[in-house]
Design a protein that fits this description.
Elements: E1 3-8, H1 12-24, E2 27-32, H2 35-39, E3 50-54, E4 56-57, E5 60-61, H3 62-71, E6 78-82, H4 87-95, E7 100-103, H5 108-127, E8 132-135, E9 138-141, E10 146-149, E11 152-153, H6 158-169, E12 174-176, H7 177-184, H8 194-208, E13 218-221, E14 225-228
Parallel strand pairs: 1-2, 1-3, 3-6, 6-7
Antiparallel strand pairs: 4-5, 8-9, 9-10, 10-11, 12-14, 13-14
Length: 233
């Protein structure tokens, strides 16, 4: 069964080649060219397996669409297409609930690899979502895809959720930056840089730590990576 993708892109010079390449790689693609048109698909958004959203559109941004989807509680994988890799755009995309971003111009093979990686991770999480992980004052409900800290549900993006799951599963052990990147993205070279991971870690600390500048849970092990410390209630 072919995966369905909703593509929000208004660049005519890019659209035809992108649709052709995605179709050749086994994806069914539905194209929308405006934020308004994308919003009209929200009632049936669950029918799609992945969203590809251009950031800059004539009537708004892809961030707006992403935020609406996440407010519906949908954890559909979302990739942003951006003409700029400036950190402010990366942060805005991740904060709005995006899973990944690709900077134009990009190679179609790179985009397809990112798509497969996201779909594979989604499939894996859907197969293993029948348990609860509890360590100290943190509880992860895999069935509901939610994290509770001292009994209160955290408002996490899907990327932050995956990161905390990985770290908590390796509680009290150092998880290297490379292994995190390989686990959360695809081990396909340099498609994701360290800056993106640093953004995830910083945002996650702001949500889980009493004092983010002096973290108790998410510890940096300089030169290696990160470690999740079990902190009792």
């Amino acid at each position: 069964m072919r995966n369905r993708i909703l593509l929000l892109e208004d660049d005519i010079s890019l659209v035809d080649g992108l649709k052709y390449s995605l179709n050749r790689n086994g994806f069914d693609v539905e194209l929308v060219r405006t934020v308004e048109e994308a919003m009209s698909h929200l009632p049936e958004i669950g029918a799609y397996d992945l969203l590809i959203l251009d950031v800059t559109l004539p009537d708004g941004t892809g961030f707006e669409v992403c935020e609406k989807v996440r407010k519906q509680g949908k954890q559909i994988p979302i990739i942003f297409l951006t003409a700029s890799d400036e950190e402010v755009n990366v942060i805005r995309g991740l904060d709005s609930g995006g899973d990944d971003y690709v900077t134009k111009p990009f190679k179609l093979g790179e985009l397809c690899s990112r798509i497969r990686a996201l779909l594979r991770r989604t499939g894996i999480s859907n197969q293993n979502n029948n348990t609860v992980i509890e360590y100290g004052d943190v509880s992860i409900d895999l069935l509901g895809s939610r994290v509770l800290l001292r009994g209160k549900t955290l408002d996490l993006t899907s990327a932050e959720y995956r990161l905390i799951c990985l770290l908590v599963r390796n509680v009290n052990r150092v998880t290297t930056r490379n292994s995190i990147l390989n686990e959360l993205w695809d081990s396909t070279g340099d498609f994701v840089d360290d800056n993106t991971l640093s953004v995830y870690v910083r945002r996650l600390r702001e949500k889980i730590e009493v004092d983010p500048s002096h973290p108790e849970h998410l510890i940096t092990v300089r030169g290696f990576g990160y470690q999740w410390n079990e902190v009792s209630v």
